[in-house]
User: What shape does this take?
Amino acid sequence: MPESTQMSVIGKAQPRIDGPVKVSGVAQYASDFHFPGMLYAVPVEATIANGKIRQLDTAAAEKMLGVRAIFHRENIGKIFRSVAGEGLEGICEERRPPFEDDVVRYYGQYVALAVADTFENAKAAADAVCVTYAKDKPNVETDLTAEDDPEVVLTTFGPFHRLQSQRGDPESAFASAPVKLDQTYVTPAETHNPIELQATIAIWDGSMLTIYEESQGVFNLRSVLAQMFGLPKENVRVITKFVGSGFGSKLWPWTHCPLAAAAARQLGKPVKLVLSRKMTFQSAGHRARTQQRVRLGATPEGKLISLQHDYVYHRSMLDIHHEDCGEATPFHYSVPNLRVTFGRARRNVGATADMRGPGAVPGLYATESAMNELADQLKIDPVRLRVLNEPKIDESLGVPFSSRHLLECFELGAEKFGWSKRDPEVGSMKRDGLTLGWGMAGCAWIAARFAAEANVQLRDDGTVRVACGTQDIGTGTYTILAQLAAEKTGVPLDKVEVALGDTSLPEGPLSGGSMATASIVPAVFAAADNAIASLLMIAATTPGSPFEKRKPDDLAFEAGQVFVKGDGASRGVPFADLLRRANLRLVTGSGKSEMTFGNPKPKFSMHSFGCHFVEVTWQPEIARIRVNRVVTVMDAGRIINPLAGRNQIEGAVVMGIGMAFLEHTSYDPQNGAPINSNLADYIMAVNADVPKLDVHFLDYPDKELNEVGARGIGEIGLAGIAAAITAAVHHATGVRVRELPVKIEDLLTSSVLS
Ligand code: MOS
Assistant: This one.
């Protein structure tokens, strides 16, 4: 079992410290704030997906009750474009500021903005704006053929080669392979549906702009807004105290935010803009549709000889988002001949965006499905096939893994699930009159750090404050920050105050890529060390201090006490006493850590790993399929808070059930609208769809990433699960579905139907 470093708070299951304010309704989300004189804005949405605005008649709307202004291209004022700069700054997916021209590129694009004294009046006015269009046929074709793109394309994170990875000679190795598999897997457009809707409140005070927004990255948003409004960054403050989930939809800014800010600038009043659920489907990002061809060549014994992964995804007319389905492919298996390529196809849809486990989640669905099919073809157990092809190093980078325990995940998962009892024959396993299907898949997700700064205060009342301008998107970052500060200072959790979600705080990481926790660990630890060093200096230099005659180096700090080295903490003095004696309210230490994300030549290949084992039940008489049991094992480094960690994985598995069976965004071929743009028609997994989930962590610290050894766990739980479910569906029904979601219609051809 993993080595275990003694830590008193880290690694203990901690209920959320922000739980009470959330469940009591005290926590203020962006749209909960209210300001005197505040006005309400409602955008006017284009009702075509391709064409031009011919005429925009605002006369009737302007005369309506409570209306302050109807904004459009002519009167909104200047909004500049923003460009990405150093260190993940200035990123937004829709690369055209709102109202920049009269071209409509997707259904629901904002073409005007009504502002009134109440939300209802603004909504009525928005509905009364009369827009006529010169309309072209929208292209929302679902069959994807890669467009002629150059070899190197610009993406959100910089230039990217369309030949993503290559080694050996994959084509001839495939041609001469004794066993071959060549299949195409399709994943649909999906829309993030955090329950909290996107919202902005914009307030101007002279040339100072304050924004309340539910953002997964307040500093990036600040940078985008500073550019859009031609302001120094210092003049923009972004505040995000609580986020009702994001899943990536709140990672990068959307056009509603600068619109609210521009309206507030013109009117000299605070402006609130809250999106409707429908708008979030149209103009606040979605996961790209993907079409992925996977070719595997293998020996009859199951050793991979060749792996080719060629994928195409759709994107909007405006974005440079890259859906990196090949993220995990180059390193996941040992294979001498490999090629990964991608292509893109523009459609009249809103900008695509990161959605939980972007790239790797659809990517691993395809490659893990292909491995499961190959196992069936070879009549080899799918776990065994993976064990046979487990790499010793990252063969694409030629470097070792920092910490990879995937085989142990398989072992533990198989044991907890009872995998050894599996009969591979389709439809052969029964229980209580139901047909059982068993499937499994592995998964991986990148581990890296963003740059982070933090500060820690020790205060004269014995409390500690930790501040970091990151966000808690519902994943538990408030609690993680408190645990880190408590671990270092020895004060109990309820004596730690956490400040986050504000650009007036030290610059914190994005809440994205499952990297926030790994990023803040070194920054908070360094900040605490620096605060403690200042405290020891004060203890040694304050007249009348019990340590007055000592050098700071002779002193130690542990469990909130300062003491002479060798004496032990039991003979120590609490830090609050020392601060009071020195007449100091507090001492502060700052700390920072560097970004490792995007390093092209890392010493180690860093990822989290895991696997899912799934049981479905199948009732052929009524064509009813359900997920009945899931065992998940994760190798995600040291788990700082097993309670919050488990929540993340459980939530991801629930989302995975939705991915496999339910979720898809459909575009109307006539007008290009996402037609199931509400929670009644966009079906997600709910409690009734979810069985008991059994989650295990291996808990091997990954010390290459940070001193605690914590990686990230927000996204990996969604990787692999759909491939495990579709394999179980095949095992139960005999139907191989390669286009998600699996629909009942797909299963009506089941040979097991009686
Ligand atoms: Mo996650 S898609 O990086 O918010």
Q: What stands out?
A: The CA atoms of residues 570 and 587 lie 23 Å apart. The pocket of dioxothiomolybdenum(VI) ion is lined by residues 216, 246-248, 251, 354-356, 358, 512-513, 715 (CB under 6 Å). The radius of gyration is 27 Å.
